[in-house]
Specification:
Number of helices: 3
Shape: elongated
Helix content: over 70%
Distance between the termini: 27 Å
Number of domains: 1
Radius of gyration: 13 Å
Strand content: under 5%
Order of helices and strands: HHH
Number of strands: 0
Structural class: mainly alpha
Largest sheet: none
Length: about 60
C-alpha cells in the first residue's frame, strides 16, 4: 500500500509542476499557487507512508 501512496505523491507533485506550465498565460501568483498546491498535496500523502514518516523524522533532526 505504501508504494501506491508514494506513486500518488509523485503524481501530485508532477501535476503541480504540470499546472505551473499549463497556466503559462496566467499571473505568476496563480502559477506559483498551483505548484505549491501540488507540492503540499504530495507531501501530505507522502507523510502517511512509513518511508515518509522516516524522512520527516530525519529532516527534523
Amino acid at each position: 500500500m505504501d508504494k501506491i501512496k508514494i506513486a500518488v505523491a509523485v503524481l501530485l507533485v508532477a501535476a503541480g509542476i504540470g499546472g505551473f506550465y499549463y497556466l503559462q498565460e496566467s499571473a505568476t501568483v496563480i502559477r506559483l499557487a498551483a505548484f505549491l498546491a501540488g507540492l503540499a498535496a504530495g507531501a501530505a500523502v507522502l507523510w502517511t507512508t512509513a518511508a515518509g514518516q522516516g524522512f520527516f523524522a530525519f529532516a527534523q533532526e
